[in-house]
Amino acid sequence: MKFVTYRTADGQTHPGVVEGDRIRTISTPTLREYVALAQHERIAWHAADGLVPLDGVELDAPIRPARNVFCVGRNYLEHAKEGARTAGRELRLYDVPTFFTKAPTAIAAPGASLRFDANVSQEYDYEAELAVVIGARCKDVPEDEALHVVFGYTALNDLTARDLQRSHGQWFKGKSLDDSCPIGPWIVAGEEIGDPQSLGISLRVNGVEKQSSNTAKMIFSVKRIVAELSRGMTLLPGDVIATGTPEGVGFARTPPEFLADGDEVEVEIERIGTLRNTVSIA
Length: 282
What we know:
Elements (H helix, E strand, L loop, with lengths): L1 E6 L5 E7 L2 E4 L5 H8 L12 E3 L4 E3 L8 E5 L3 H11 L10 E5 L4 E2 L4 E4 L7 E2 L2 E7 L15 E8 L2 E2 H7 L12 E9 H4 L6 E6 L2 E7 L7 H8 L10 E3 L21 E6 L3 E9 L1
């Protein structure tokens, strides 16, 4: 199943599930509330007047978590290598995932124009990522049970202001600007994906491929990420975890390639779909 949040002509948003070329409206106010209830039982979503055409609505971000988006840094070996090479330092790998967060106000919708300020940053960069949506309140989850607390998966672009990232000496500010976390276009149920460590992942700018890899190349698997993040810390239904990006990001290219006004960026993940956004920099 593909779960969405859509916006009607009157500006109201509604959660739904895709059925072919239509969306069946879910009866909860938000998809996050549905996810929280669905950990106990699959609530009924159908209604006599609940079907709307998929191509007749605007999709919003499928879910908006109650708190920051959790992220994993340097989780593909080749990306870790390119980052170390560009920074002129030795590659250092850790025994545990490196976690950081993006502010929830960074979340943007699929298809949206991502509005950035040229006075804030001159180095807007892209990062294609598989995102995990947590489906149950949980803590201290064993690694071999971690996929049981996953509701589903979606695509995410961890857009980053590289100059802010350098000048602040940490990642939060440069990765939390408004519109820097588009996700979508929908969440695919975990049981339909099965093994999340076998998905092709790619990114294109104006149709030109910049990143191409597979989630099999993650240093830390989804299971390990969920287990480590939940150690001593409660995860909530609707929490979003971005699992890292493969090699090919703009700052590590020769010469560096940063996003420009009008660029179209597409994140494509096998069995999930394509997250497409344009960039507006003024």
